[in-house]
Amino acid sequence: MKKAMLTKSCLFVTLLILSGCSTGKTNEAEQENQPIRLMSESELTTLDTSNMLDFPDAIVQTAAFEGLYALDEEDEVIPAVAKEMPDISEDGKTYTIQLREDASWSNDDPVTADDFEAAWKKMIDPENALEYSFLLIDTMENAEAIAAGEKEVDELGIEALDDHTLEIHLNEATPYFTSLLTFPTFFPQNQNAIEEFGEDYGSSSETVVYNGPFVVENWDQSQTDWELAKNDKYWDQENVKADKIHYDVVKESSTALNLYNDGQLDVATLTGEMARQNLNHEDFEDYPTATMNYIRLNQERAGKDTPLKNEDLRKALALGVDKENLVNNVIADGSEPLHGAITKDFISHPETGEDFREDTGDLMKYDKDQALSYWEKAQEELGDEITLELLVTDEGNYKKMGESIQYQWQDLFDGLTINMKSMPTESALNLARDSDYDMFLIYWTPDYKDPISTLNTLYSGNDRNYSNETYDQLLDDASGKYANDPVKRWETLIAAEKEVMEDTAGMISISQNQQSILQNSDISGMNYHTFAAPVTLKDVHRE
């Protein structure tokens, strides 16, 4: 992933979904007919899986469309449109996948291998300049050359051998590739719908057709609410128990709590003080995630170097964030300080089972004296007065987090001015994509279950203008030289994390998120995940 999310990516923090049903007193028949009510902490932006931008997109798209593989409740990859797990060649570079013959679109077209081939070629076409094309560039044969305009799109390493057989060719053996196929970027697209709707494809619930457990209703890009209805053309509809799910955008934790208490939400996402106040609520639940809050540090803006080009300044800022104070007193929802790029309990050593975070240890912990030493070195090059802009989103706790970090830095570093800018998530992400920012406090969730999903966001060519030959070589070795040597690959990825986090301070990690919710006791089947879509809805139902 030689770039960054929206990525995770994207990407891609705080989770945002929830399930619902009234908590008020209603009879059984009335309850059964009620939609399950969910909330999203930001708007849905598109139903075009090629243009996915943020968490709501990933969640809704994973509910309304289905790829070759999906995740079960234990984060294990299982067949979806694929009939079984892939047949992988001995060198790990060729995947042959058989599709089930009973999968269909909501317009009655069969789901075919051609739908996957066409969608992936659309993704890599340089004329489309799609955000998540890096996932193909990192893995698939000829993708990098195609994206650079050096080869034709039809040379991408994917071929529909027949209607129900797909053959995929990779650059190198890629241990995480099957998990990557659970991500919406790799979902199929119905070619008849694309031809019919043209540029409007995916811009509303009426300009797309679906092959997943649900269809989307009553949504266009101006809507802050929408519905998911059971898809009666879905091959596994018998195991989809919810007839209808209603979503509302709810950006404030206090509003979510009020709606929950009033019976208008079945699940409320809580952050900060609201989470802390409700730890003993009978409906309180929390889930560990692999989502981190972190600060992107951009070294070039509008063609000019930012002060963050200075490594001493980056190190001063990284060491000058008191993460424990921030997590305990501002975020305050059960999240934990994060001292590295890879979250804990996400991926384990292939032989010993030791967690990546434990194996690597803490990197760049708060150290006031060391931070001031780097600050003085930075001032020698940049001058006594340094001004930086901190971009934050307007959802959840991000503005409060930004204000706390702003205060910490300005209090610690004499001569530093931090100007904070708060914007809607989509607008902020668009600025980030164009590298039009100095620093950006945002969240990130891995796209697939491998450290390189996160580490690749800082490979040269990223939207933060970070470039490091040593780091690039380590990632290249992990992806190529050691692709079939799991232990050596693991050691190489650990060295890469230390290089980018400790040696050069390419970004600043803040915290590992905890998903804190109030959930109605009669709602089950909300499956939370540590990568890909943060929650899947196929199994959600009312008891």
Task: Kindly summarize this structure in a few lines.
This protein has 543 residues and is α+β, with helices and mostly antiparallel strands. It has 18 helices and 23 strands.
Descriptive labels:
543 residues; alpha+beta; seven-stranded mixed sheet; 20% strand; globular
Fold and architecture overview:
By secondary structure, this protein is an alpha+beta fold. It is 29% helix and 20% strand. Strands 11, 12, 15, 16, 17, 18 and 19 form a 7-stranded mixed sheet that branches. The chain is globular.
Q: Main beta sheet, described?
A: 7 strands, mixed
Unreliable parts: 1-29
Instruction: Compute the number of helices.
Output: 18
> Averaged pLDDT, please?
92
Count every beta strand, where a strand is a DSSP E run of 2 or more residues. 23
What is the 3D shape?
A: globular
What portion of residues belong to β-strands? 15-25%
Helical content, roughly? 25-40%
* Class based on secondary structure composition and strand pairing: alpha+beta
User: In oligomeric terms, what are we looking at?
Assistant: single chain
Distance between the termini: 41 Å
Cα-atom radius of gyration: 23 Å
